[in-house]
Design a protein that fits this description.
This protein has 153 residues and is mainly alpha-helical. It is built from six helices and two strands; from the N terminus they run ααββαααα. It has one domain. 61% of the residues lie in helices and 7% in strands.
């Protein structure tokens, strides 16, 4: 009797796990591209903040005690193809990013010091339009989530 109950419990647990897995897969399938974009952007931004955690704000050069952002030099609206370009995004304090609309003149000066004039001019140039697929966004999300996890250690 005890053995039968043990087998029954094991089978029920296996069924529960399979149902949970199927539910997760169905939920992921139902996610729109915009949701994948938000999740990929969040993972990328977290990685940028961790990557630059010991650096000051790229625009004002101070170590801010408040909230820090992953500030884009070329905004995602102006250049969506550079949304996930690592050289385009750096740690920026909340006042510079929000209240000073990115503080772009000072951002550019800091960017030239960090990555050089040639790279800044490349960022400012024309780029091929890019529309990310859901599979690309999943890859980006998992890549930067793993990189952020490694940096957080």
């Amino acid at each position: 009797m005890a053995y039968g109950l043990k087998v029954l419990a094991k089978n029920q647990e296996a069924k529960r796990k399979e149902a949970a897995r199927a539910h997760r897969e169905a939920k992921a399938q139902a996610k729109p591209r915009s949701q994948w974009m938000k999740e990929a952007q969040a993972a990328f931004n977290r990685w940028v903040r961790l990557r630059d955690a010991d650096r000051p704000c790229i625009s004002c050069g101070r170590h801010h005690e408040g909230q820090n952002h992953a500030g884009h030099f070329r905004s995602t609206g102006a250049a969506p193809e550079l949304r996930f370009e690592e050289s385009n995004v750096h740690l920026q304090c909340q006042p510079c990013n929000v209240h000073k609309s990115g503080n772009l003149i000072e951002y550019r000066k800091g960017l030239v010091e960090r990555i050089g004039v040639a790279s800044v001019e490349w960022l400012e140039g024309q780029h091929e339009p890019k529309k990310y697929t859901i599979d690309e966004l999943k890859t980006i999300k998992s890549k930067y989530a793993a990189m952020a996890k490694e940096l957080a250690k």
